Amino acid sequence: MTTRFLLLGAGYSARAFAERLKGRADIAGTRRTAERASLLAASGIAPLGFDGTAITPELADALRRTTHLVVSAAPAPDDPFLSALQQPLKEAMPELRWVGYLSTVGVYGNHDGAWVTEENACLPRPGRSDGRLAAEQAWTAAGREAGVPVALLRLSGIYGPGRNAFANLAAGTARRIVKPGQIFNRIHVADIAGALDLLAQKELGGPFNVSDDEPSPPQDVVAYAAGLMGVEPPPEIAFDDAEMTPMARSFYGETKRIANAKLKAAGYAFRYPDYRVALDAMWREGNWNARV
Predict the structure, then answer these.
(1) First CA to last CA across the chain, in angstroms?
(2) What is the CATH number of the domain that holds 30?
């Protein structure tokens, strides 16, 4: 049976997934503007228009043939696809076998530096994170009604080619803001693609933390990248003295260590288990400043 993927929101992570799948499956993806069509095509994705409000005849035809659905579009405030779909999931997608929803570890809220598994309560702050949790719940309910497993991939901070400490250092935007006890979690985009691949092949449902093995202070990552580049790292700035936007400052209001044992138990082996392995590889391969 032919595997047909539809990527709702073919952004950075979804395009990396499509690159991984080239030659193994038919892949279509939605885009909001005609200008993005060539970007999708370059990643092996057949572009489909979706403005976030209406299902076009072309998209409806793709839905009827889709076996695996990957959703990465952000809720604003409701999930744009479920809001536009006027019928139950299985009626619109009779061949559907699996759904993967790209969420965020932000749904857990603050845990004061403690380790967090999929069993922990979700206590997101009002705003983007609680919108993601509501979308998780909506997709899980739609999948249950359709009899289709829905995997909730809770992603840590995403980095990879074109989006990393090297690029920030080269652009002069890297900063080493130090807040004692602050830990951030991160995941290389290649491991998001790998986790999606595994969960889709096994058609597993439920929440999965997608985060590497080493939650770390953000200033350490910048310093390590600067060392590889052979440049002086930017000076450390105390958190209380740093000029930051309210959104940037809000990220420092939460700290937790995301555990990934459930994803490993499902059979996934991380390509980049920590930021040092990833930065070493990107610097060696010279793809850190790739177009994204």
Answers:
(1) 32
(2) 3.40.50.720
